[in-house]
Automatic annotation (TrEMBL):
<dbReference type="InterPro" id="IPR011993">
    <property type="entry name" value="PH-like_dom_sf"/>
</dbReference>
<feature type="domain" description="PH">
    <location>
        <begin position="63"/>
        <end position="160"/>
    </location>
</feature>
<dbReference type="InterPro" id="IPR001849">
    <property type="entry name" value="PH_domain"/>
</dbReference>
<protein>
    <recommendedName>
        <fullName>PH domain-containing protein</fullName>
    </recommendedName>
</protein>
<dbReference type="Pfam" id="PF00169">
    <property type="entry name" value="PH"/>
</dbReference>
<dbReference type="InterPro" id="IPR051707">
    <property type="entry name" value="PI-Interact_SigTrans_Reg"/>
</dbReference>
């Protein structure tokens, strides 16, 4: 998370573009990324969260930890939709069709995950899973209780594995 102050240096066009929800920016590494406007306070400071663009995610078969159909709750309409899910060491991605590995309909960066747990009490549906990030709780439904436990276990392992790898880099 970083902040960008909208002032005269950016001009009214930048402010208008930021207010539309998305801006393009360059990171310190020179990579062009999409940013999503998350809040504006009264003095005009915009809080932005960098998100990887779904179009840039391409999954290689060798990276797949687990894949299969689950039902997910849509972000805005809260409708339940069947999707093909693919778990890699970095992402949990959903696709409209089985066998797709480019341009996910949605993705969760595992480095952002806080918890993964059973969610029958939240969703009111059997075999449901909640993957919690700072921005959102993703609700998913596995086909069977066994698949639910597999998804929770494997997502959890990738979260822990990722945390250990990141910690090792800083030691």
């Amino acid at each position: 998370m970083f902040e960008i102050v909208i002032d005269d240096a950016f001009g009214p066009a930048m402010l208008l573009y930021a207010l539309l929800g998305h801006i393009s920016c360059r990171t310190e590494f020179g990579v062009c990324s999409e940013a999503f406007l998350t809040s504006i306070d009264v003095v005009g400071t915009c809080s932005l969260t960098l998100t990887a663009m779904a179009e840039q995610i391409v999954i290689h078969r060798d990276d797949i930890v687990m894949e299969g159909f689950m039902v997910k709750q849509s972000k805005f309409m809260k409708e339940w939709r069947q999707r093909w899910f693919v778990l890699t060491p970095q992402y949990l991605c959903s696709f409209k069709n089985q066998g797709e590995y480019r341009n996910p309909t949605e993705f969760i960066r595992l480095g952002d995950c806080q918890t993964v747990k059973s969610a029958e009490d939240i969703s009111g549906k059997e075999n449901s899973i909640c993957v919690q990030t700072p921005e959102r709780a993703f609700l998913l439904i596995a086909r069977t209780p066994e698949e639910k436990e597999q998804w929770i276990s494997r997502i959890g392992r990738q979260m822990v594995r990722r945390a250990v790898l990141v910690d090792d880099e800083f030691e």
